[in-house]
Specification:
- The protein is mainly α and 462 residues long.
- The chain has 27 helices and no strands.
């Protein structure tokens, strides 16, 4: 009988004493306590049987009964592990915390506490547990990686960077080192340490100038510190890394605009156009830049170079007509729209925009109405086209038709209203003596434009 009892107790001790549960420096009296008894051992062994069969709930029942007989932290460990397997993370946290009071350096309990706490949103416990794991297993950099990612997601970069520095020169693979360095640079950028990024990138991290992520951070850091020409130089280098990325050419143009150097802006437009010769946006921006310098012929030629490209011809005349109007060259504007209308009579943009310009000036209103009707037939859902025809009828003194079309334009504009549509509605309602509507539309126009002149008009209508 005595031999059987000794065997049962021995099995209980073996189950409690695996390598991760009992450390070499654990006090022997805590493991081989005289308080253990056969009843606790039997209950514990039954719990192990159900645990082996992955019947976690039944295992918990026996482990809890064993714990009532013998308050052993090793029994609590088994209870905590079963709770974790059942996704009962709150219970896992509570039991593992109690077990850790007696086994403060137990890796298995610390890991269960870490993984359970994050799942129930206990971020402070998660963080503290990870720091504990790092302190007792400094060679296990997985814990450091986990804490770094946690701080990165939380945007707690001041905490993150020292941990990266503590492992960056250790035995880690090239890809891991790259990711850590990028996180450090992002952390420095997000904490406004732009000068430190510049120094690092021109020192220990020079190889990062050959990566898109690193070079982008360097460019932005130069930009943030007012070193615009250095930002520009490095943006040129960026183009060599991302030749087919239109966005990087837009960024080059933007940086050149910040230098206030006309020669650099022209150079940037030319670089972008050389790479994307049919990009209408690049050409339009260069053309407007030349308009500002009153180099009108050069400005028009920039766009006329692609007039014969499929589908771009009508847009060329439309853009140039609008640019000439905007810069006070109204006669040239009408010439270009007339030429565009003659060459591309079915272009929606030319039909609508030419008609609107004529109506604004009160010129050839019958012709404007004919063009507007054609544009609307092509796109009856366009709020802008409806606004144009409403305004033409307003100019023709047909206010009822104008009112009908402007209301339809407002409906079609949906959640993208245009303040000019409301302003036109205001003027039309005034002619019809719909004073309250006129006032409401004027208020909407002001709310969208914040034009002080409209505010003054609102005051006058009170």
């Amino acid at each position: 009988m005595l031999k059987s009892i000794i065997i049962i107790i021995s099995i209980f001790f073996l189950a409690c004493s695996n390598k991760e549960l009992i450390k070499k420096n654990s006090p022997p009296e805590k493991v081989y306590s005289s308080q253990y008894n056969p009843k606790a051992s039997a209950l514990f062994i039954n719990g192990l049987k159900y645990k082996t069969k992955q019947e976690w709930k039944q295992a918990i029942v026996f482990f809890q009964q064993a714990y009532l007989v013998e308050n052993s932290p090793f029994i609590l460990k088994e209870i905590s592990k079963c709770h974790f397997k059942l996704n009962e993370f709150l219970d896992a946290v509570q039991t593992s915390k109690i077990a850790l009071e007696e086994l403060p350096d137990d890796l298995e309990m610390l890991e269960i506490l870490m993984n359970s706490s994050i799942r129930i949103g206990e971020e402070t416990i998660f963080e503290e547990t990870l720091i504990k794991l790092i302190s007792i297993t400094p060679d296990n950099i997985i814990y450091s990686y986990t804490l770094i990612d946690f701080y990165f997601q939380k945007k707690e970069f001041e905490k993150m960077i020292p941990i990266i520095d503590s492992i960056i020169d250790g035995p880690i693979n090239e890809r891991a080192a790259y990711n850590l360095k990028i996180k450090k640079l992002l952390g420095l950028y997000n904490t406004n340490n732009y000068q430190e990024i510049i120094e690092i990138m021109n020192g220990d991290y020079q190889d990062f100038k050959d990566t898109r992520e690193g070079l982008e951070l360097l460019i932005n850091s130069y930009f943030q510190t007012g070193k615009i020409e250095k930002a520009y130089e490095n943006q040129i280098e960026m183009l060599n890394l991302t030749l087919d990325t239109v966005e990087e050419y837009y960024k080059l143009i933007y940086i050149s605009q910040m230098t206030n150097l006309d020669s650099l802006q022209l150079k940037s437009y030319d670089i972008a156009i050389a790479k994307f010769p049919n990009n209408l946006d690049f050409r339009s921006e260069k053309s407007e830049f030349l308009f500002k310098s009153q180099k009108y012929d050069l400005a028009e030629n920039v766009l006329f170079e692609i007039e014969e490209v499929d589908s771009l011809g009508a847009r060329v005349y439309d853009i140039l007509g609008e640019l000439n109007r905007r810069y006070g060259r109204f006669d040239r504007c009408l010439q270009l729209y007339e030429a565009g209308y003659t060459k591309y009579p079915d272009s929606e943009n030319i039909l609508n925009n030419y008609a609107y310009i004529l109506s604004e000036e009160g010129l050839e209103l019958d012709k404007a109405l004919d063009m507007s009707i054609k544009a609307l037939e092509k796109n009856p859902e366009s709020a802008n086209y409806l606004d144009t025809i409403a305004w033409i009828y307003y100019k023709l003194d047909d206010y009822e038709k104008a009112y009908s079309y402007i209301n339809e334009a407002i409906i079609k504009s949906g959640n993208k209203p245009n303040h000019e549509i409301y302003l036109h509605a205001h003027e039309i309602c005034l002619k019809l003596n719909y004073m309250q509507e006129a006032k409401n539309y004027l208020r909407e126009a002001y709310n969208l434009s914040k034009d002080d002149d409209l505010l003054d008009k609102l005051e006058e209508m009170k």
